[in-house]
Amino acid sequence: xxxxxxxxxxxxxxxxxxxxxxxxxxxxxxxxxxxxxxxxxxxxxxxxxxxxxxxxxxxxxxxxxxxxxxxxxxxxxxxxxxxxxxxxxxxxxxxxxxxxxxxxxxxxxxxxxxxxxxxxxxxxxxxxxxxxxxxxxxxxxxxxxxxxxxxxxxxxxxxxxxxxxxxxxxxxxxxxxxxxxxxxxxxxxxxxxxxxxxxxxxxxx
Length: 205
Description:
This protein has helices at about 55-70, 80-85, 85-100, 130-135, 135-160, 165, 175-180, 195-200, and strands spanning about 1-5, 15-20, 30-35, 70-75, 110, 125. The protein is an alpha/beta fold.
């Protein structure tokens, strides 16, 4: 089932999990998914789409989510796996895996976006703009974004010449200029056109 912006959210009986991913657009690094079951007795205030929050606010909320949630999990899919599966399938696989890895099993999963999870262990519903509409998805988006940003800072230490600490792997002008100048590192996604182009441009240099 898919919930559009015009649809009312269904009332779910039982435990509800939300899942979301971070890192579909970048040229480098993992795609990271998280799943969260919030505790109705331990509410987390200020949840929203992670992209609308400051880095400091995301980190504070991530710590609070981990402390208060009934269960949470985070899963990372490597650039090599992304190249093998394609980014859509890798993102869906990551979100399903995050839900499956929850220590407490939910009765239903709300998935951010317009695709449901195939072969999921429980019923799931895709919610368009779910990271702004469903608290559990918002919480998952925050955990995924914070984890991925932390991973990119680690990659910056390993490959400082690419500036991953600034652009986090996204295809900014600066990132693409560096990529075309020195070629990709092992953490770049070869299936993405700008990376393929950079490989061709730097062959024989």
